[in-house]
Structures are given as structure tokens and as C-alpha cells.
Hints:
Layout: H1 3-23, H2 37-41, H3 53-64, H4 86-98, H5 109-125, E1 133-137, H6 140-155, H7 160-163, E2 171-176, H8 181-189, E3 197-200, H9 210-222, E4 226-233, H10 245-255, E5 258-262, E6 287-290, H11 292-295, E7 303-307, H12 310-317, H13 348-382, E8 387-389, E9 397-402, H14 409-425, E10 432-436, E11 439-445, H15 453-471
Parallel strand pairs: 2-3, 2-4, 4-5, 5-6
Antiparallel strand pairs: 1-7, 6-7, 8-9, 9-11, 10-11
Helix pairs in contact: 4-13, 5-13, 6-8, 6-12, 9-10, 13-15, 14-15
This protein binds pyridoxal-5'-phosphate.
Pyridoxal-5'-phosphate binds next to helix 6.
Amino acid sequence: MTAEEFRKHAHELVEWITDYLENKEKYPVKPRVKPGEIFSRLPDGAPQEPEPFEKIQKDFDEIIMPGMTHWQSPNFFAYFPANSSPPSVLAEMLTATLGAQCMIWDTSPAAAELEEKMMIWLRDLTGLPDDFEGVIQDSASTATLAAIITAREKSSGFLVNEQGFPGSPVLRVYCSGQAHSSIEKAVKICGIGKANLVKIPVRKDFSMDPVLLEKAVSDDLRKGYRPCCVVATIGTTGTTAVDPLREIGEICSRNGIWLHVDAAMAGTALILPEYRWMTDGREYIDSFLFNPHKWMFTNFDCTAFFIKDAGRLIRTFEILPEYLRTRTRGQVNDYRDWGIPLGRRFRALKLWYVMRSYGAEGLREKIRNHIEYAANLKNLILAEDDFELLAPVVINVVCFRYKPAGYSEEKLNALNEQLNHALNDSGKIYLTHTILNGIYTLRMVTAQTDLTSAHVEKAWELIKTTARAITA
Ligand SMILES: *Cc1c(COP(=O)(O)O)cnc(C)c1O
């Protein structure tokens, strides 16, 4: 592609992107495609000869777009938000253009120093302790893995890295029964083993029961295990339950246990002073993560990972092959030593664009609106006799079900599953489910970048009419 061709197509794509952003809510949120449909429309091998851009773009429009789920649609209420925003898209264009590898300071000094500064901005915006240092990771899953590996090294005196597991004492990790699957994955792959992940039962509000945590820890100590790490969740994926950090932190502190906090989505709410109660007990935290790529308008991937003692993290992950030796070592942050991958994208740039474009007040306003929409939806649900709220509404997730009179529990589960499919097949909205105490639960997440109260009200009308039509 020549420079002139690039200029022309880039302008065309900017038009495409702008049209998409203006019209994204008109697409069916969840595509109506069957498994294998897209695959079968693609050629079996790469082309031998160059193809014109127009042809590639036409296939994108005709083959790819009909199979996309529109995560940026304000009618997307499923899973969790994976928000983007115009400033984030613009910054990502620059990141792709520069194509820099940000593994160490020398390979892109501005990227390393902007990352260091952005982590300070985020730390202060979310009210985390001043002595925390931060690094951007690709995902919460990776950051949790890095945290648990660091906890493993700390509790083994940094021996597992050198010699492998000694066999005893066996390390134990704790999280609530509502914690994210990434914790189980991390425990599996870091060699501690799934059998040594203790899932602590939750209280009525789906938060970890600290009394049962304390008991599990002392039982384990009695059996000769070594408690290594507790992962507390601020905003569980199912219902946004908040584990009681102070009580958990005190148990960790008394027993020399690493406290890692997974605030993947809900961490963004910490930029609101009125949500700082969620991190009461923050002085006990050893490591903490949240995903600007979820609810802070920064497109995937961008996980902010903070650690109280970065030295331990670096000691765990440090490598120094000859070809990466530099004269600046020790004076600057070489982020390859702060996590798993060597190669790193320039992710700080989009954070910079997003935080400057919205400003802290602009971010707060959007977040507050999302929280208010969830509270309003809760009231709409409570006002209907044939609907039931199934979990406290803490932030931006509303858990509920359709519950017409005269249905058994089993039939209600089947009915709500049917309702969920009917809504998603309509293409008008998209929501997903969870199981709470055996109950099939619809979840509605009110956190998409361009969401307005009108979208929520319209979705609620659709849910009511679809539900009642099924049982009419
Ligand atoms: C989404 C989520 C994760 C996983 O996030 P990734 O960045 O996709 O790995 C982990 N924990 C919680 C609480 C989440 O909501």
C-alpha cells in the first residue's frame, strides 16, 4: 500500500468509524449467525496475489460485520461492559501506527514514563495508598496470576522460582464462592493446584464471610498447610458483591497472608468519593487490580495493577538476558520485570487520552449516571408484582427474574431461560444470566459508555412485554 493509498483508505475508515459510532445502537446487539457460518464463507487459504483494499473492506462489511456482537451498543446489558470511547479509539490508532514494543524503558522511554505517570493518576483518582506502584497488564486474569505467583514466592522465601515446589508445606489460597474463575485458573497454572484453592462461603449479600475465612485459615494451619494468599473481590461478576476488606485484611495481617484485591469492574467506582467505603481497610492490601477496559471507557486491553511492594513483584519476574542489558537499569522502570509477557503494547497512551478528554469530573458524572440507572431499574422491578429482585443493587448490576404466580421453582428457571433467549434473539437488547442459590437469574449491567436512562426504560418495557407474552 502506498502512502497515498493509505491516506485515502484511512480517511474512508474514519468515515466508517464515525458512522458506526453514530449508528451502533441500530445493529442487532447479538448477531443472528449459526456456528460455522462465517468460517465457511472465508477462503481456505491466504491469497497468493495482493488484493485491493476495496475488496478486503467489502468482505469486512459483508462477512465479518453480520457476525459481530456489538459490545459498544447502549443496548448491550450483558456480562460486563468492555467500554471504548472516541478518545480511546483515537489513541489506539496512534499506538498501532507507532507499533512500539514497550518491554523496557530503552525500547520506548516515553511509553515507560507515561505509564508510570498514568498509574500515579489512577492510584490517586481511586484513593489507593500513596506508597502503591502501578503497572498496566493486559487483563485482570494476568494481573491476578502475577499477584498469586508473587504471593507464592514471598511465602516460599523466593524458592519455588529457583527450585520448584519442595512438596511441603502445601500452599493455600482463599477466595469467596462468588469470586471470578480467573483465580481458579491462576491457582491451577502457578502450581499451587485447584485442590488448594479454598472457596469461602458467602453471606446473604453474596460477600465473603470473614468468620468462615478465619476458621478456614486456622483449620489449615492446624493441618500443617501454609496460607499464602487471600483474593478479595470488590464487585463480584455475578452480583457486584463487595467482600469486607477490613475484616479480611486483619486476618491476613495476623497470619502473614498476601491480600490481593480483584476490583476488575467495580474499581472504577472508586473514583467517586462516596464509593471509597469499598476499600475501607486498604492499608492491608498487598496488590490490587481494576480494569479501565471495563468501565472506564478505555478499549480492551488495559488492566491497572497496583502493588504495595513492587520489589517483590520484580524479584519474582525479573530476567536479564544479555541482549536486554542496558545502561539505564535501576534508574527507570523496566516493565518487562513487572509481569509475565516480555513484549508489551503502548497502553498508557489511550489512558492519557481518555483521562484528559473526560477529565476526572467527566468520568465521575458518567459513572454516577450509570449507578443511578441501576437504582432506577431496581425501583421499576420492585414496582411489579410478577418480577423479583434477587440480589442487592450495589453499583451497576441488577439481578432479577420474572416470577408469575403459580410456577414451581423448576418451571421458573426454565421460563427465565426462555425469556433470556427470546430477548437476545430479538437483537434489540442483550443480557446474560447467572445462577444464584440455584435460581436462574437475569443480570442487567447498566454501564455502557453511551447508555442513557431512555435505553434502560425501553429495555425494561421490552423485558416486561416479552415475559408476559410468553405466559399469556
Ligand atoms: C471481568 C472480571 C475478571 C476478568 O477480567 P479479564 O480482564 O477479562 O481477565 C476478573 N474478575 C472480575 C471480578 C471480573 O469482573
